[in-house]
Design brief:
Number of helices: 3
Distance between the termini: 54 Å
Strand order of the largest sheet: 1-2-3-4
Structural class: alpha+beta
Largest sheet: 4 strands, mixed
Number of strands: 4
Order of helices and strands: EHEEEHH
Radius of gyration: 22 Å
Shape: elongated
Length: 119
C-alpha cells in the first residue's frame, strides 16, 4: 500500500508521519484491496475559525476495492487524523462484513434432500 501525505499551510512533525503510516498500515487487516492512500493535512490560518477546528485532515483510498473518503476537523493534526481514520475503519469494517459468505442451509432443506434421494 502506497501512502502519500500532503501538508498545506505548515510543515508536519516527523512523528506525525511515522504514526500516520503505522495506523494506515493496520487497515490491511480487513482484507479489502487498497492500493493507495492519500492524506491531506490542511492548517487554517484564519483566526475567525478558532483553534478548535483549525486543523483539517482528509483521507482518500484508491484501489480495486471500494473508494473510501473521510474528513475530520480538530484542534491539532493528530486528533483530526484519529477521527478520520476511525471513519475509514468503520467503512472498511462494514465492507468486510458484507463480503463474508454465509451458507444458509436449514434443517428442512437437508431433510428434503434425504427424502428425494433415499439410499
Amino acid at each position: 500500500m502506497k501512502i502519500t501525505i500532503h501538508a498545506r499551510g505548515e510543515s508536519l512533525a516527523e512523528d506525525f508521519v511515522v504514526i500516520a503510516k503505522e495506523r494506515l498500515e493496520r487497515l490491511s487487516r480487513f482484507h479489502i484491496p487498497i492500493d493507495r492512500v492519500e492524506v491531506d493535512v490542511i492548517h487554517e490560518v484564519n483566526p475567525h475559525h478558532g483553534k478548535k477546528s483549525s486543523h483539517q485532515v482528509k483521507i482518500k483510498t484508491h484501489g480495486t476495492g471500494p473508494f473510501l473518503r473521510a474528513e475530520a476537523r480538530a484542534f491539532n493534526d493528530l486528533a483530526a487524523f484519529d477521527e478520520a481514520v476511525e471513519t475509514i475503519e468503520f467503512q472498511l469494517r462494514k465492507q468486510h462484513e458484507r463480503s463474508k459468505e454465509f451458507k444458509r442451509e436449514t434443517i428442512r432443506k437437508k431433510k428434503g434432500m434425504k427424502q428425494l434421494f433415499p439410499n
